[in-house]
TrEMBL record, chains A, B:
Top-level taxon: Bacteria
Lineage of source species: Bacteria, Bacillati, Actinomycetota, Actinomycetes, Micrococcales
Role summary: Plays a role in the regulation of phosphate uptake.
Keywords: Cytoplasm, Phosphate transport, Transport
Similarity comment: Belongs to the PhoU family.
InterPro entries to which the protein is assigned, alphabetical: PhoU, PhoU-like_sf, PhoU_dom
NCBIfam families reported for this sequence: phoU_full
Protein name: Phosphate-specific transport system accessory protein PhoU
Major location (coarse): cytoplasm
Pfam families: PhoU
Length: 226, 226
């Protein structure tokens, strides 16, 4: 039974890695599309989100099947419940990539990336991709050093998120209302993407350390500065 | 065992109702604070969010304990997994109420509610409160008619969300960048609140009908129009 359970967990882990990799591709394409107003790339992201949703749904079904057939208890049970939550966060990260792609499509042929914030959003995009890529690696290797690296990327995202609002609310901001709206939404999406990456990473920490705390489990919501 | 399970489910249900009622109070206060720039009311919401988080955490622990001790299978198992997801959505609704309160506090003593959009945001606030109140009632009574009413409130919220962007992007919009930022974030929060209410309501539908579909379970993300 123990052997069966461990095989099942490996299956779960493999699927989490697969979804995280799909999310990495999605956020990479979405942020490149946003930066270059590439509407066809944006549309690829929008279409591919259904695949992420399906994979997350299949993972949920597998987790429920493990609960039903193998009846895990104690730490094993918490691992399976964690997998359900990681699946939900990864699915949400895919949605956020889709939202960034939608912003790009909506503004086309105009640029979605607001003037004066190009380098900021390029950097936010890079940090999102980095966080997603490291999350996939963390899920594959359970190398705990990656957790801090993902946190660092999220901290940098939070700082850039604040800087976007400082810029938009400064006297020097010349953007039209549409640029202000785009900057607000896009910055919020990037910031939330990082939050979800940290939320998943903390659950992986639990899997490797066995230390379960309320903080491990709670969806960590970085205070919205703006 | 069956009897014990049903008692446990009643406990779960009672806690879901309690959290939904706390969320109703939070969104009611948050939207009133936003409408009247009442910073002390906003602070009440911000402080009280920890209670919602704690209650959601306790409910999660109870659900995990039920899984461990009673080892439910089939539909019973799905009910418990659904409760975990409803708990996460309710907790997130509390966070959104807190975010609206934070917007109010940040702008104080200025008004957070953007000029020209007062009636729109008052209406969005009313719809959020209505959705939350009906959700609490739905969780208590499992009266399926309420599900459609919550959907209708969410549809109305989506329409108002689109109208906010139409207004902000129109030639007549005179708001400064800060008003544009506030309108964008506040509208997004209201819209997401409605999405989560529908997501929980659909899971209650499952509890009463026993019909489990991918759609019942997926976090329904209304396409972001802007």
């Amino acid at each position: 039974m123990r052997e069966v359970f461990h095989q099942s967990l490996e299956d779960v882990q493999g699927r989490l890695v697969e979804i995280a990799e799909l999310v990495t591709v999605a956020i990479d394409k979405a942020t490149r599309a946003f930066g270059t107003s590439d509407v066809s790339l944006a549309e690829e992201v929008i279409e591919a989100d259904a695949v992420i949703d399906d994979k997350a749904g299949e993972l949920d079904e597998l987790a429920i099947e493990i609960l039903a057939r193998q009846q895990p208890v104690a730490r094993d049970l918490r691992i399976v419940v964690s997998a359900l939550r990681m699946s939900a966060s990864l699915e949400r990260m895919g949605d956020i990539a889709e939202h960034i792609a939608q912003l790009t499509r909506m503004r086309f042929p105009e640029r979605a990336i607001p003037k004066g914030l190009k380098s900021t959003f390029l950097k936010m995009g890079e940090l999102d991709v980095e966080a997603a890529r490291k999350l996939a690696e963390l899920l594959r290797t359970q190398d705990g050093d990656l957790i801090d690296e993902i946190r660092n990327a999220d901290d940098a995202l939070d700082e850039l998120h604040v800087s976007v609002f400082e810029k938009v609310l400064s006297d020097s901001w010349q953007g039209e209302a549409s640029a202000t709206v785009d900057a607000t939404l896009a910055s919020r999406y990037h910031e939330r993407f990082g939050d979800h990456a940290v939320s998943v990473a903390k659950k992986v920490a639990y899997l490797s350390t066995g230390e379960w705390t309320a903080a491990t489990d709670a969806l960590d919501i970085v205070t919205v500065e703006q």
